[in-house]
Amino acid sequence: MAVKLKADGIIDFVQESEIELMEPQAKLAIQLLKEAEQKDDNMVGWHTLPKKLNSNNIDEILESAECIRKLADVFIVIGVGGSYLGARAAIELLKSQFYNYEHTPQIYFVGNNMSPSYLNHILSICKNKEICVNVISKSGGTLEPTLAFRAFKNLLEAKYGKAEAKKRIFVTTGIKKNNLLNLAEKEGYKIFKIPANIGGRFSVLTPVGLLPMAVAGIDIWQIIFGAKKAFEDLQSDDIAENHSMLYAAYRNCLYKKGRRIELFASFEPDFEFFFKWCQQLFAESEGKSGNGIFPVPAIYSTDLHSIGQFVQESGQALFETFIDIENTEDENEYVVKKELVDYDNLNFLADEKMSCINKMALLGTISAHTKGRVPCIMLNIPRKSEQEYGYLVYFLEKSCAISSYMLGVNPFNQPGVEEYKTRMFELLRGKQEE
Ligand code: PA5
Question: What gap in Å lies between CA 38 and CA 54, rounded to an integer?
Fold first, then answer.
């Protein structure tokens, strides 16, 4: 179990000596992370979280997950940003994008937008179904999940009555007093608390992510095991050993050379939501005061047929970070059949596995893009599993913190997000006064 950075696709763009020059900055970033941990109101609880997770916190999650699995045909997860992306990413990556067609309870994510038609569709899917709800909001006051929770609280109370609804509502929220926590305490809902020193986008290994994952039948102990291993492996501040530092150094080096956009790319569509989680992690942590690398998810080969042209010939501001799974072979995978008449000229691929064809597409793309002057970083994981997910999450969280400090920004706040909220509430309140 590991995440290894492979530099073959960047050697033409970044010299080893340049990375050596970056090492002191990466070391300083680790020092800043350790110093932040000493402060009372720090936001770096995620850093030592893996070693603190034990049966006291996990058994409670497993018990509620079991109860939800027994009670519900449909499980509604309400949350936005860091309060839903990690769980959805894990379910799609470790189960499948088609989870809801293959498993129960079906899991729907709401409260991550304010579209009336999106909400209506999910409400109508819930008709005549047994429902449980997990509302997740650290602040307990974000508009999108708060509105969606009103709708589902109304639905559950109308369908089951208050007493039964209470057994079907699970609340994950911050420790600090907030409206959601007040309501949950008053109504007697089951409450999971998010530690004060873990921010939304770093909270996937808390009940925020672990409860929905457990409901989906994901082995959360294995996730924690993977994160613990990453925690231990990434203690070193030797850049050659610690690839979370190395990744941060390459990103910063490329940024200094004018590469301001990072495409997170994979040839596995199941990575779509994982990349949305990465996008939030890096964009909200780094994009401050005119700094930051803009992260964009890309699923290949699908997106090669849309953005591939741009990347190949106009990618001077880009670099790509590929997440490659070493072993994607599956004993049930499709093997190309030989046709009697070679109507599509593909008989040369007869007996080839889809995993081999997909791998060649990856290698061909990296070769083409590097020739088109786009640096390609490769983060390699051995296989797709719970342990690797836990490892990868922790690896990226640590890289992101190091990289942000190297850029000279505080990774753990997001002052810019308030601007749209202020203006939206001004408009909403103005409308009320009209
Ligand atoms: O990283 C963050 O802090 C944010 O993206 C939050 O996760 C997001 O805004 C949701 O906030 P809350 O959980 O308070 O509803």
Answer: 23
